[in-house]
Amino acid sequence: MCSFILKSYNQKDEIRKSHFFILNKGNNSGKPLAFPCPNCFVIIAENQEQADQLRTLCYALWRCRAFEPHLHGSVIPFMTIRSFRSVMAFHIPIIEQHAADFAQTVQALKLLEEREQTLTKTLRFVSEYKQAFVRQFFKNAGV
Predict the structure, then answer these.
(1) For the chain, is the Cβ count within 10 Å smaller at the N or the C terminus?
(2) What is the SS3 assignment for the chain?
């Protein structure tokens, strides 16, 4: 799991391997992203399984606020590649020691993400239905 490429994201670079993005500016620095933004790093993994493991590790570290002590700057906090690498280098051996448990965690988080997406779609449909319901009321009332 320890061989991956970490670099600043550049729109001009084409990425062909499994990858994901890490926000590097603001209070949410370290948050894994599915799509790039102007202020992010890209992590390029050897395969999709490794990318999922690294994304889960980054998500767990972000949720535990492990990146906050490594933020720099007073107005807009940011994280350097060196800081991000040091946090990852500290935690990767721990994950490798407990590989079986971490694999279960990766699978569980994947299922939860799928469930979250389903619920988000359902909430969007409910919101649209409420809007249509209110419109229909005013249309029938002659307003």
Answers:
(1) C
(2) CCCEEEEECCCCCCCCCCEEEEECECCCCCCEECCCCCCEEEEEECCHHHHHHHHHHHHHHHHCCCCHHHCECCCCCECCHHHHHHHHHHHHHHHHHCHHHHHHHHHHHHHHHHHHHHHHHHHHHHHHHHHHHHHHHHHHCCC
Domain annotation covers residue 136: no
Which tens digits make up the pLDDT trace of 4-20? 889 999 888 888 888 99
* Cross-strand bridge partners of residue 9: none
Distance CA 30, CA 43 (A): 12
Is 29:58 a contact under the CB 8 Å cutoff?
Answer: no
pTM comes to: 0.78
Token pair listed for 44: 């390029």
